[in-house]
Amino acid sequence: MERKSDTVRRLVAEGKLKDALRIAKEFHLGINKKDSEDMKMGYECLVHPRFYKDLGLDADKISQQGIETVIRLYGT
After folding, report:
1. Tell me: the pLDDT tens digits for 39-52?
2. Residue-by-residue DSSP string for 20-61
């Protein structure tokens, strides 16, 4: 059985970053608070960009930050 962290690594390697963030945003062990928040908000901004843009946030920038975090933590 594949562990969730291994699944995230595989998804990052396959370029399926949204799917990788969907799983990794729930990780807490071994992840600092900033990285955890970046992945959570990055995923949320990918899924609901209009909502966050309406709040005055730069959803594209936040999404990119989440993607960069998941790649840094789980990329090869």
Report:
1. 999 999 999 999 99
2. HHHHHTT--TT--HHHHHHHHHHHHHHH-HHHHHHTT--HHH
